[in-house]
Amino acid sequence: MRVLVVEDERMLADAIAKGLRGEGMAVDVCYDGDAARMRLAAYDYDVAVLDRDLPRVGGDDLTRKVVAGPHSTRVLMLTVSSGVDDRVNGLALGADDYLAKPFAFAELVARVRALARRAAPAAPPVLERAGITLDTAGRQVFRGGRYLPLSKKEFGVLAELLRPGAAVVSSERLLEKVWDEHIDPATNVVRVTMMTLRRKLGDPPVIETVPGSGYVVREAPAVLESAPTGEDRR
Predict the structure, then answer these.
(1) What are the phi and psi torsion angles at 44 (to 5°)?
(2) pTM, to two decimals
(3) Consecutive sets of 10 residues in the chain, 234 residues long: mean pLDDT of each?
(4) Would the keyword Nucleotidyltransferase turn up in this protein's UniProt record (predicted)?
(5) CA dist., res. 96 & res. 73, Å (int)
(6) Are 124 and 162 in contact (CB under 8 A)?
(7) How confident is the model at residue 30, as a pLDDT?
(8) Contact 156/24 with Cβ under 8 angstroms?
(9) pLDDT of the residue at 227
(10) What is the predicted pLDDT for the residue at 164?
(11) Which pLDDT does position 89 carry in this prediction?
(12) I want to staple 178 with a disulfide (CB 3.0 to 4.6 A). Which of 30, 129, 149, 156 is the partner?
């Protein structure tokens, strides 16, 4: 899941971003509306957390641009005003949700995850395929009843591969959705993460490499009782 945080209070923006990254999300940060406008045009974010009162380009204008744009980005609007009229006006602009400051971080996380599930195509809280069960809320993964201790990036990659409607998922999409803007696009981090993920998933292998296209999860026979071999099945 990739999230854009737009907040002109830098300490708050950085704290939100740090907390969301701790929840396994890829997060970019902007401190003004103009920078956010360019990011929103360049990237297909799952959720944008927007402060309503921003310099240069305001949160209201940003929300209008998101709604009119080509992406399915969901908007969570932050504001110091908690009045009914303000909430109604924010939602009328096209915001998907509204959260008044100060807020509990746990509530922010829950709302961001709920909005991400509403992005097209809608993703259920539990993803299942090829004997794998991935709980997006509890951040747990099982295969054949066996718990798999995945890293945050391995979890994010697997979630992308299991999302509804996913066929072949390119390395470029994985970089966009699981990592943030600071990642080098020429890096081999996707290949390395895929290698460790395959090892943890064990036998029989279910992640197939489609040359020139990306990766896909295929149905496989029942999981064997033996432990993972550690072989890289690229």
Answers:
(1) -95, 85
(2) 0.63
(3) 90 92 87 88 87 81 80 85 63 79 91 80 74 86 91 90 79 82 72 92 89 82 45 44
(4) no
(5) 10
(6) no
(7) 92
(8) yes
(9) 44
(10) 72
(11) 67
(12) 156
Domains of the chain plus CATH, in order, are 2-118 (3.40.50.2300), 126-217 (1.10.10.10)
Instruction: Please tell me the predicted confidence (pLDDT) of residue 166.
Output: 64
Residue listed under structure tokens 């504001």: 79
Per the structure block, which two tokens stand in for 220?
Answer: 């496989």
